[in-house]
Each structure stands twice: as C-alpha cells, then as structure tokens.
C-alpha cells in the first residue's frame, strides 16, 4: 500500500511538473512574440488582434468542452484553444501597459495606470472562483471571458492610435490627435475611392 501511495504521489508530482513546464514554455514564446511584433504593428491593432484571438479561442474552447463527448481528442482540442486564449490575453495585457501611458494625458496618466492596476487585481481575485463556478455552469466562465475579449476588440476601434505620437499633456491634445487620425482615415479612403478607374467599374 505504501508503495502504491508513493507511486501515486510521484505520478501526481510529475504531472504538476509537466504542467508547469508547458505553461513556462508558452510564456517564454509569448514574450518573444510580443517583442518581435512590438515595433511592427500599431499599438491598437496589436491589442485588438490579441483580444480577438483570445475571444475566438476561448469561445471555441467552451464549445468543445460543452458539446464534446469527453474523449481524448476533445480534451486535447480544449487544451490547445485554452492555451491559445491564454496567449492572447497575456499578450494584450502586456501591450495595454504600454498603450495606457501613451494615451492618457499627463494630468490623468496616474489615474489611468491606477485603474488598470485595479482592474487587473480584481480579475486576479475573481479568477479562482471561476473554477468553482464551472462545477455548476461549465460553459459560463469561458463565455464571459470570450464576450469581454470580443467586446474589447470592437471598442478599440474608437480609441486613438499612440504609435509615433507625442504623449499628450491634456485632454484637448487627445481630442486633437483623434481628429487628426479621423481626418487622415478619410483622406486615405478618399484617395482609394478616387484611384478606382470608373471604366473598370
């Protein structure tokens, strides 16, 4: 009996070690990918991409968990899409710490960073209870996170782009930057429409 107990403890510790190694490998690759894409994509586009990736991956993970038959194939798919959703959430969270100080003006920058820290801590406090909620409603925690990510994806359309932009010192600067960006979008769309040959249309 003692030998069986020792074997079960050894197997359990081995599984915990493998789980930790998988998460660490994923975290290292996520940070490398963040650094590689940091200067290429605009801030808002990068955050929207990662939020959208997380939202879709979590939604698929919930669908696989809810509609699957519990076989090993569905378990592997659930694990893959869960890790992909975690990848998107972690990457966007890192970029938000860069994006927030660039968007908020000087007199509100500390408030913005404080609210960001508060929101992150609230999420950290609530996340352990999602496991308890899964015992009663298995699909609800993943669905809530997926809806939040997809909602953030669409709301980022109304935010200003901060790449290659001087950090604002007041709200009037932020409004002016947003007007300039909207004007540049209209000019680009007008040029694209004007460049179309009417004979080909």
Summarize the structure in words:
It is a single chain. It is built from six helices and no strands. By secondary structure, it is mainly alpha-helical. The protein has helices spanning 2-37, 43-67, 72-103, 109-134, 140-155, 171-194. The protein is 79% helix and 0% strand. It is elongated. The protein has two domains: 1-40; 42-162. This is Major facilitator superfamily (MFS) profile domain-containing protein.
Layout of SSEs?
Blueprint: H1 2-37, H2 43-67, H3 72-103, H4 109-134, H5 140-155, H6 171-194
Helix pairs in contact: 1-3, 2-3, 2-5, 3-4
Rg: 22 Å
Main β-sheet description: none
Number of helices: 6
Low-confidence stretches: 192-201
Number of domains: 2
Number of strands: 0
N-to-C order of helices and strands = HHHHHH
In angstroms, what separates the terminal alpha carbons?
Answer: 81 Å
- Helix/strand structural class: mainly alpha
Helix content: over 70%
> What is the 3D form?
elongated
The overall pLDDT average reads: 75
The amount of beta strand, in percent, is: under 5%
Summarize the structure.
This is Major facilitator superfamily (MFS) profile domain-containing protein. The protein is an all-alpha fold and 201 residues long. 79% of the residues lie in helices and 0% in strands.
Quick tags:
single chain, 201 residues, mainly alpha, 2 domains, 0% strand, elongated, disordered C terminus
């Amino acid at each position: 009996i003692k030998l069986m107990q020792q074997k079960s403890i050894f197997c359990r510790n081995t599984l915990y070690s493998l789980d930790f190694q998988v998460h660490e490998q994923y975290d290292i690759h996520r940070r490398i990918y963040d650094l590689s894409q940091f200067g290429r994509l605009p801030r808002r586009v990068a955050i929207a991409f990662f939020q959208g990736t997380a939202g879709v991956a979590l939604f698929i993970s919930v669908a696989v968990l809810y509609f699957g038959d519990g076989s090993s194939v569905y378990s592997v798919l659930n694990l893959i899409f869960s890790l992909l959703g975690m990848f998107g959430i972690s990457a966007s969270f890192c970029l938000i710490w860069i994006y927030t100080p660039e968007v908020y003006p000087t007199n509100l920058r500390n408030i913005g960073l404080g609210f960001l820290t508060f929101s992150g801590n609230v999420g950290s406090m609530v996340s352990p209870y999602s496991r308890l909620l899964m015992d009663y409603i298995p699909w609800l925690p993943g669905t809530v996170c997926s809806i939040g990510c997809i909602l953030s994806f669409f709301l980022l359309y109304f935010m200003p782009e901060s790449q290659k932009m001087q950090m604002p010192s007041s709200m009037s600067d932020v409004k002016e930057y947003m007007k300039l960006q909207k004007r540049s979008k209209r000019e680009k769309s007008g040029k694209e429409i004007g460049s179309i040959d009417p004979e080909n249309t």
